[in-house]
Amino acid sequence: MIWFGNVSKRYERGGRLAVDGLQLQVDPGEIVGFLGPNGAGKTTTIKMLTGIIPPDTGEIEVDHRSMIRSPLEAKRKIGYVPDQPESVMRITGREYLHFFADVYRVSPAEREDRLVQYLERYRMEDVIDELIQGYSRGMKQKIAVIASLLHDPAVWVLDEPMVGLDPHAAKVVKEEMKWRRDHGKTVFFSTHVLEVAERLCDRIAILQQGRLVAVGTMEELRRGSGVGIADEETLEQLFLELTE
Ligand SMILES: Nc1ncnc2c1ncn2[C@@H]1O[C@H](COP(=O)(O)OP(=O)(O)OP(=O)(O)O)[C@@H](O)[C@H]1O
Questions:
Q1: The pLDDT of residue 244
Q2: What pTM was computed for the model?
Q3: How far is the CA of 16 from the centre of ligand 1 (A)?
Q4: ipTM
Q5: Is pLDDT of 65 > 80?
Q6: 82: Cβ below 6 Å to ligand 1?
Q7: Superfamily of domain 2-77+154-243
Q8: Closest Cα to atom 31 of ligand 1
Q9: Which GO terms describe its molecular function (predicted)?
């Protein structure tokens, strides 16, 4: 479960709010897609959710742990895939994954099991002992995805996960999201790929200039858009109506 209680963030004094009074809950067993035009505040929201930057005001909870008051406990509940995969690390993929498994205290048996499984699933066995520096963007993205899953987190948070992934890897990530949802976990991800969001998400949240302008199922968004709603109205049409 993820809960944002009236969360706001401003980067510069006197500047505009990057996130403005965000109120949103994502429940276990739910995939929620986070959409919005460039600069809407999606990455800022995700950075606050994962405890990388603090909100100015408001409260954030992850699996009933407060990110403000119990940040370590809250962070342990999260698997996080950032928008820019690691590019400068002079360590191998395997070393990177063991580092994450150590940080999240994954037992040796579990980590070995999951490593074998995920390396095969993401077709990374052949490059896992090479330096991350030499990986393609997609490989860096895949290693970040695997690292985020090793501790089997209750809450999976991904910032633009489809960027750079080949069709096979994108499919595996989407299947992983559905599997986690079906096993009572929480999935929250930002994307500009509206077709993916439309097909995959149980609910969609749309941010514009830091404010949540819509949240709901596709059906609820269609009903709420109030523009002579045709049943087949796509998320792309709704998105453009709501954000232009
Ligand atoms: N470190 C920073 N310092 C100052 N302003 C920032 C910083 N990071 C983001 N901003 C500003 O905050 C606002 C929200 O940016 P953010 O990156 O959260 O948007 P986004 O929705 O993720 O955009 P995109 O879809 O382009 O990735 C923008 O106006 C951006 O310029």
A1: 82
A2: 0.95
A3: 11
A4: 0.98
A5: yes
A6: no
A7: P-loop containing nucleotide triphosphate hydrolases (3.40.50.300)
A8: 39
A9: ATP binding; ATP hydrolysis activity
